[in-house]
Every structure is written in structure tokens, then in C-alpha cells.
Amino acid sequence: MKRELTATPAADLGVNDLLVLLKPRVMSLVIFTALVGMVVAPVSIHPVIGLASLAFIAIGAGASGTLNMWWDADVDSMMRRTRNRPIPCGKISADDARLMGLWLAGLAVVMLALAANLLAAGLLALTIFYYVVIYTMWLKRTTPQNIVIGGAAGALPPVIGWVAATGALALEPVLMFALIFLWTPPHFWALSLFMHDDYARARIPMLTVVRGETVTRRYILGYTCALVPVSLMMALGSVGGPMSLSLAIVMNGVFLLGAVNLVRRTDVEATGDRYRAERKFFRFSLVYLFLIFAGLIADVFLRPLASSWLPLF
After folding, report:
1. For the segment 217-271, what is each residue's pLDDT rounded down to a tens digit?
2. Helix %, strand %, coil % for the chain, to 5?
3. What φ, ψ does residue 100 adopt, rounded to 5°?
4. Contacts of 130 by beta carbon, 8 Å cutoff, 6+ apart
5. What's the sign of the alpha-carbon dihedral 218, 290, 44, 126?
6. Domains identified in the chain and CATH numbers
7. What does pTM read for this prediction?
8. Are the CB atoms for 106 and 40 separated by under 8 Å?
9. Quick one: which H or E segment has residue 156?
């Protein structure tokens, strides 16, 4: 249940505070994966339409982040990682943040429908609704599987990018969706391991709080293993190629090794930085996702070069 946040005197609101409300780090990941969906699609999209679509997808992501911060302002004020966000600090009121988020969401969906197509706009609307209502308002505070089920919202951007270019769904964007969906739990569970005290203080039922660190590490390994066949299927499919396959083999090997290393750790290790391995795994998970998707873009540009060299052999 959402708890009331004690009002804080208003302070000057700067441009940086507005950017923080949009969650720029999350937005950058959304833009990148949506771009990959567009680039690897079997049909080309006009550059102006593509850039406009990416801009509106980004605005939709910013709207989701703003509405997330509006609803979660009470728990943000209790967590070290989030207590300096604009709403807990009193730099913007919760009501103003909510209004800003709703306006941005409406703008993003309507403009994407005009720039690309109705299906892409519908998927963007579904993404915003799922992240704000299903995940933020419901799952996050009620179940340790919040990240697993809620991860669907973060997995949709490449599908939206593909649909913006093609106007239809296909197996390839479904595989991209599945990869991000399976990547999300180990990524966030690693974060929850070294941010355990924050989540416990805010009474968020993350897996590490409800089931403990040992169980969480085992779950991380399980989902990391599930990533392997999906990433290989994607690399071996029509959107993949030698670069995607090479990166998938290497990155999955390193990711699996990191997950195994986490399982072998115990809850009583306390020399130096107790969660050094978890922090390292969390950071690498970002590199993993970036390179897996970057490999798909690389193969798009390498494919014509490979075709031009074939007649020489």
C-alpha cells in the first residue's frame, strides 16, 4: 500500500531536476533498444520518421519514469539511492509531477500514431500503462516476483521500434522482447543484493528481502541460463549474423561465469566490499545487453559487405 509523503518546502526547480524525473539512464536504454528494433527490421524507415518515432518513444519512457517517481515518492524518500530525487527533496510537487507525466504520455502516444502507425502507438501506450499501473502501483509492493512480471514493460521498446518500421509483429522482435525480459531479473536482483537495506527499509518485497541472498543468487543463475538459448536463437535467426553469434557466445560465457561466482558466495563474506562481485555483475549486465544488441546492428552493416565479397571466392 502506498504511504503518504510528508510535504517538504518547495525549492527552485532546475533543468537537471526535470531531466532526473524522466529517468535519463532508463530512457537511453529504451532509445537504444528501440533503435535496434528499427534498424534490423526487414524494411527501411524514412530517417525523419525514424528519428521522430525514437523521440516519441523516448518521451513515452520519460513519462513512465515521471509517473513512477510520482507514485513512489514515499519509498524514494526512505532509500539512499533515491532520496535525492526531485519529489522527495521538495523541488517539485507530486501533483505537478503527475500532471507532467500524464501530459507527456498522451503526447508521446498520439504523436507516435501520427508519425509511425497505430500499432506502434498502441504498444507504447501498453508499455506506459504496464510500467506505471501494473508494475509500479501493484506488483512492486506486493510480490517478490515484481521484477520478473514487471520486466515486460522494459522489454517492449525493440518491439515498438520494429513495428514503427514495419507496421506488423514478427518472430524476431518477440525474441528481442524475450531476451530483455529474461535479462531484467538477474540485472535487478544483483542490484537488490547490494541495496538490500534500502529495499528492506522501504518495505519493498524484493526477492533478496523476502527469500534471502542465497535464494536470490540461485534465481540469478537460473535466469542467466535461460538467456543463453534465446540470445543464440536471435543470433542464428534472420536478424543475426557472425558478429551477433560471436558476441552471444562470448558474452553469455562471461555472464554465466559471473552468475556461478555469485552462487558460490556465502552470506557471511564480509572482507572489504562484501558485495563487490554483485556490483561487478550488475555493471556487466548493462554491458552484456548493450553488446548483444549492438551485434545485431553490426550484422546489418556487415551483411552487404559479406555479399560483395562472396563472388571473389
Report:
1. 999 999 999 999 999 999 999 999 999 999 999 999 999 999 999 998 765 554 4
2. 75, 0, 25
3. -60, -45
4. 150, 152, 153, 156
5. positive
6. 16-168 (1.10.357.140), 170-302 (1.20.120)
7. 0.91
8. no
9. none
